[in-house]
Amino acid sequence: MSNYVVAIDQGTTSTRAIIFDKAGSIISVGQKEHEQIMPQAGWVEHDAAEIWQNTQEVIGIALGRADLTRHDIASIGITNQRETTVVWNKHTGDPVYNAIVWQDTRTQAIVDRLAADGGTDRFKEVVGLPLATYFSGTKIAWILENVEGARAAADAGDLLFGTTDSWVLWNLTGGPEGGVHATDVTNASRTLFMDLATLEWREDILETFGVPKSMMPAIKSSSEVYGVAEDSSLLRETPISGILGDQQAATFGQAAFEAGESKNTYGTGCFLIFNTGEEIVHSKNGLLTTVGYKLGDGPTHYALEGSIAVTGSLIQWLRDQLGIIESAPDVEELSASVPDNGGVYIVPAFSGLYAPYWRPDARGAIVGLTRYANKGHIARAALEAVAFQTRDVLDAVNADAGVDLTELKVDGGMVANNALMQFQADVLGVPVVRPVVAETTALGAAYAAGLAVGFWSGLGELSANWQEDRRWEPAMEQAEQDRQLRLWRKAVTKSMDWVDEDVR
Ligand SMILES: Nc1ncnc2c1ncn2[C@@H]1O[C@H](COP(=O)(O)OP(=O)(O)O)[C@@H](O)[C@H]1O
Ligand SMILES: O=P(O)(O)OC[C@H](O)CO
Questions:
Q1: For the chain, what percentages of helix, strand and coil (3-state, to nearest 5) are there?
Q2: Annotated binding residues, as ranges?
Q3: Which residues form the Carbohydrate kinase FGGY C-terminal domain (predicted)?
Q4: How many CB atoms lie within 10 A of CB 374?
Q5: Ligand 2 center to residue 271 CA distance, Å?
Q6: Within a 10 A sphere around the Cβ of 104, how many other Cβ atoms?
Q7: What digits encode the pLDDT tens for the residues 91-124?
């Protein structure tokens, strides 16, 4: 009897395999970090072969820890860091270049070139996204323009593109021997190439970017059987039946299935998704329009998204580059060593500013420094920056949706930080709510995979699994909230207009 579902969560910093039971409870976890390769300022790469190796290992670890075999597993779901771009040779299975990660800004010159004709919003009406380095399209173009032999191989039909969901799926289903080359609608909606209304690749846009259609994966729903794991896999013959980009997966795992529901995930970056149901809503306030989910032949659910590039990675930066903490959770003690931020504000525009500003010319800034400031204030300002950025995005959601969200469902690695969650409620002025299962990303992929094979009966059963763990009520005086936001927004202006011919 197959009583469990496995979710593979291929994230920016690590790859996890998590086994869930029918109640949506975690049975076991396997996790491995992979190397962050940063050859130049603004460049971030991953070794796709390492990611595939880690994927196989974490599946083995999760199965081993739970003492389960493939016979216990009903199906496999995949969720992934979105936009990160892998291009590989379909005959050998070898990537032609390291995966170019979503945070990487090397393609700004390609963005500028394409924007010269029609501006950064030239494709937005069709694909929901502005032209920006964030999305896969310019990353594929960069590989074809800069990696020796790539253009000719692509034109000959030898190369495949995929985000890491496609890369894992293709390898898991046999690689060069019959691997399935597909992605789901949520990941496809992050490329700049998918028409949101038809859910098909736009040949005219592919042509504008110089990307042959033969490289592109088939676009499937988020919940259907794509293929089965190959014979050499520990999970051989198990169907792979769910794929969602990680932020959409977290929304699904939070059971935010209906229009008006939302969540904010605090990981490497922060991503607030607001479900707009079957309606494609175009933002007037700097949000992206994206696909939320689509189950088999069912209707497409769309969403507005506020993407913040740097949140958890700012804490990693305190740890790895400044060395003022030894591990990420140490930031709690360091920030609690001071009563307030001492007037210090950090704007972590390491990859420019994403939502709602979309300013590639911004770079990181620490402002308000005096001789009084110490590392406790820096730690505190880093955490507060996470909450302030979320406030900016929530304001944009409220303005676009014409509603005021009355609470915010949260998840991700940073929500373990109680002081951050309290400050978040304070600067939002609405309660912040954390579910029992904070691994909502993996849970959402498991749900999609389980639904496709009848492991779960429907959305009602999944909603019943959602349980509140903790709620933070706002406690800050309005005048203090106003003062904090005024200073934060002043700090944001200081980070802008920094990139020029001397600084990229
Ligand atoms: N106690 C904490 N306080 C603040 N940040 C934390 C804490 N624990 C972990 N983090 C941050 O959370 C992030 C990990 O969250 P996770 O959801 O696993 O990220 P991802 O899925 O993007 O890899 C890391 O960037 C880390 O710096
Ligand atoms: O891997 P995460 O959790 O940092 O998520 C990355 C996002 O999908 C990027 O769009």
A1: 35, 25, 40
A2: 12-14, 16, 82-83, 134, 246-247, 268, 312, 316, 413, 417
A3: 264-452
A4: 14
A5: 8
A6: 25
A7: 999 999 999 999 999 999 999 999 999 999 999 9
